Each structure stands twice: as C-alpha cells, then as structure tokens.
Amino acid sequence: MDYSLVIDETETTVPGGTGLLLLHPSIGETDRIDTDFLRTDTDNFLVVSTRTTAREVEQKLEHYEVDESTAEILDTISVDRGYSRRGSDHLHYVSAPDDLDGVVNNVDAFLARHDGKRRVSVDSLTEMAYYADVDSVYDATDRLLDVLADHDAVGLFHLSKEVHDEATLDRFRELFDGVIDLDDDGDATVTLS
C-alpha cells in the first residue's frame, strides 16, 4: 500500500512501512509539517506526544483543522507534570515519560486495532531521550519502525538538530527511509532513500 506524502513543494508517495525522520531547529514550524503529514491520505492516525499534553495536541489538531475523528493520542508527559489522566477510546497514557516499552506496545496496539491507511507521529525523540537516554530511544525507535513495517503503516519521528551532536543525528538518520530537514526559515527539504 502506498501513501501520499505532501511536504511543502514535495509531492510523492511512499510505501507502507516507511519511517521518516523530521530534523528540525529547536524552535521550528514542526506543527505545520506534522499536521500536513497526519491529514493526508489516512484513515486513522496516532500522535505519540512526549513534549506536550493530550489537551495541547487536541488544540494543535483543531488549530490546523485536522479531522480529529480519526485521531488517537498517546500522552507520555501528563503523568510527569502531575495532570489527571483519564483514558478513553482516543486518549491513552503510559506510566512514565521513560516507559519506552509502553510506547512501543501502545503503537502496536493502535495499529492492530485499525485497518486501512494508518499514520503515526512521534513528537519527539529528543524529549524521549531527555527522560530516558539516547541509546534506549534509539533501540525503541528501531522497534517502532519494525512495528510500522509489520502493519504497513507510515511514521514521522521528530528530532531536534540543535540538541544532539552530529554523530547522534547521523546514527538516527541511518534508521530511516527518508529525512525531512526543516531549516530556521521554515523551509523543508525531503530526501528519500
């Protein structure tokens, strides 16, 4: 199954199982890239939010006019901030921000629950590494990419260029089928392998 990919001036298709790395400046227009990715050619999508709460994700989707009826959110941060957590059909939580097994299992469960074209956004690997560590996040990312491939889904994974050294960025780049490089001016360059 092929998925449409529309990022700024780039319009193409990618096969199911594709993982894309979004490299971005710390203060970048990632929401625009993320919501364009989620709204295009999809039946259901999951936002794995390690940086903002589920409520903030819902506000982002509403602001960018993304159809929330097909959305699910995995909130990993509310528990750390002491916010109440009430799960529902579309809201899920893990036990702690560094519960990487919980993240992988929730993504797998989401993909198993839905048929058709499914997209996953992980926002962000940088934040996951803040709570866990880079090696653990690298391993979890590798597992998540396997889960996407198993379910013929596609994913977009955020990683900040300004937080990690070049060796770490290169290490993560090698895991992915494509890289979206967002510059300080908000321009995106898409490179697919």
Task: Summarize this structure briefly.
By secondary structure, this protein is an alpha/beta fold. The chain has seven helices and ten strands. Helix 4 packs parallel to helix 6 and helix 5 crosses helix 6.
Ordered list of secondary-structure elements with their pairings:
Elements: E1 2-7, E2 10-15, E3 19-24, H1 30-39, E4 44-49, H2 54-63, E5 71-75, H3 78-81, E6 91-93, H4 100-113, E7 118-123, H5 125-131, H6 134-151, E8 154-160, H7 166-173, E9 178-182, E10 188-192
Parallel strand pairs: 3-8, 3-9, 4-5, 4-7, 5-6, 7-8
Antiparallel strand pairs: 1-2, 9-10
Helix pairs in contact: 4-6, 5-6
Kindly describe this structure:
This protein is an alpha/beta fold and 193 residues long. It has helices at residues 30-39, 54-63, 78-81, 100-113, 125-131, 134-151, 166-173, and strands spanning 2-7, 10-15, 19-24, 44-49, 71-75, 91-93, 118-123, 154-160, 178-182, 188-192. The strands form two sheets. It has an eight-stranded mixed β-sheet, sandwiched between helices. Helix 5 (125-131) packs across helix 6. The chain is globular. It starts with a strand and ends with a strand. The mean pLDDT is 93.
